[in-house]
Amino acid sequence: MLHMPKSLLLLSCFACLLGHSVSAQEATGFRINGLTSTERDSLAQHLQVTTDLELVYACVPAGVLVFGANTPGTSRAALRSLALGIMAPVIAANRIGPVELDLQAAEAACETARGE
Questions:
Q1: How far is CA 88 from CA 52, 83, 95, in A?
Q2: Higher model confidence: residue 101 or residue 2?
Q3: Model confidence at 9, in pLDDT bands (50, 70, 90)?
Q4: What torsion do the CA atoms of 12, 32, 88, 10 make, to the nearest 10 degrees?
Q5: How far apart are CA 6 and CA 11, in angstroms?
Q6: N or C: which end of the chain has fewer CB within 10 A?
Q7: Torsion of Cα atoms, 81 then 72 then 100 then 60, to 10°
């Protein structure tokens, strides 16, 4: 039987729940310096009451968050603006990386971080 720490198992389960297919919607990802599970959970909780945006993938060890639009036709620029607005009360702007990530890059970063 595969034995993994509880925290890694919980993170894997959370990533699986959030990592559903986003191929039919726009998505934008961010690299966050020093992302914590508390911050991720706070964002996820806040997004439960919002209809414009959803957190489709999160990986704390790699410090990545990927957001998707719930409204068809949302532009990538609008999606990025919405995501930055949602993160503003929780994550300082200077911790958010300048390079946008797609879902595949976020998953690869997570896999790399887990392998370290």
A1: 16, 9, 11
A2: 101
A3: very low
A4: 10
A5: 8
A6: N
A7: 90
Q: Of 21, 5, 24, 23, nearest to 13 (Cα)?
A: 5
Global pTM value: 0.78
Residues 6 or more apart in contact with residue 98 via CB below 8 angstroms: none
Sign of the dihedral defined by the CA atoms of residues 52, 101, 113, 94, in that order:
negative
Q: Are 19 and 27 in contact (CB under 8 A)?
A: no
Tens of pLDDT along 47-62?
Answer: 988 778 999 999 999 9
Question: Which residues fall within 8 angstroms of residue 111, CB to CB, at 6 or more apart?
Answer: none
More confident of the two residues 92 and 14: 92
